[in-house]
Amino acid sequence: MSARRSELTRAAARLFAEKGYHGTSVGDLAQALGVQKGSLYAHIQSKADLLWEVASEGAAAFHAALDSVPDEGPVIDRIRAALRGHLRVVGEQLDVATVFVREWRYLEGERRDAFVAERRRYEERFRALYREGRELGELRADLDDATAALLALSAVNWAYAWLRPGVDTDAIADRFTALLVDGMRGYNTP
Amino acid sequence: MSARRSELTRAAARLFAEKGYHGTSVGDLAQALGVQKGSLYAHIQSKADLLWEVASEGAAAFHAALDSVPDEGPVIDRIRAALRGHLRVVGEQLDVATVFVREWRYLEGERRDAFVAERRRYEERFRALYREGRELGELRADLDDATAALLALSAVNWAYAWLRPGVDTDAIADRFTALLVDGMRGYNTP
DNA sequence: ACTGGAGGCTAACGATCGTTCGGAAGGAGA
DNA sequence: TCTCCTTCCGAACGATCGTTAGCCTCCAGT
After folding, report:
1. pLDDT tens column, A116-125
2. Whole-angstrom Cα distance, residue A101 to residue B180?
3. Which of A5, A187, B11, B22 would disulfide-bridge A22, Cβ 3.0–4.6 Å?
4. B-interface mutation test, from A177, A184, A187, most B Cβ less than 10 A away
5. Where are the domains of chain A?
6. What percentage of chain B has pLDDT greater than the value 70?
């Protein structure tokens, strides 16, 4: 992929995240590159191509983050690593993550189906950590692992809305993990 | 407000939630009412009016839910009530809640400013519960209440994405509360 | 020196966008 | 019966949408 083409993809990620897919015109994209809008079609076949590309990039980034979580070791450590990885992707590729989380639904046809499948697979991998933790006894036996995974995943999925670039995402992930693991009950509470 | 006008607002909420604000045309809205698109302008001055109306309705609903949380009593009970209230709004007014959470950013000018202020005020009220809990000693003294509130609020803000109408939102809120309060650590974990 | 491809230009296409307008049907109130 | 108000129609407006077409320039490879 040429350098110019990469610029276009990055501009698309930024503008789709900022103004939404339907709120971004081909003219906007062209302006971001300092070019006439017709010229973009030397690089793409349609505007939808760009959405697909950015969404796929997001899916790849989140899966890659999970790939680097070890298969063994204390489950709580792995949960912390998964949260760290997810938040790191959001923090370092905020535009791409925003499109992955919010704009994907404007995909159409089989691209949409393929995206949904990838997304579901990611959530499954995430949830498996909690199930394994319960089965191994590292998490409480009466844990509703689906709810626990939903709570954690919701928190990080929503992160694109409040995470500002440059913050220490590892520290936030660690605080989330500590809360999820130990709770917030005080000592003088029945 | 006339009955017809209310129908229009409800159709707007549904379509904005389903296809997005920019993805919904005035023609789509007219079709939902079985009417020519020009006829809608007997009820509204612009399409943006509808977005503002639905977004405001959402803000009112969420604030009303918080209003019914008592000012006194055990903080944990009040946190549970707040989560119940929030999730109940999402479950019972899914379209409105979706617009409140996701489509508000297409508001423009002072309407956008006013919405953001209302939203911030809601989050502040939510966060105050956690701060009070820590100060009263009902939540652990070393609690990072901002992080705790963020975790809880993120989970319920994201709920529009996975909550299906008709489920028992109170039960989900209770499970979230239990998790947040007591954590998920197992007994044979150091 | 010649060629081919990459990248950009201008101009225009048909479609659709949100909005406006004049007129008309129909019921409610006087 | 007359009038007003709500609601809608049908047609049109200018603007903007995503996309296509033909042409030009520049540069790397042969």
Report:
1. 999 999 999 9
2. 24
3. B22
4. A184
5. 46-182
6. 98
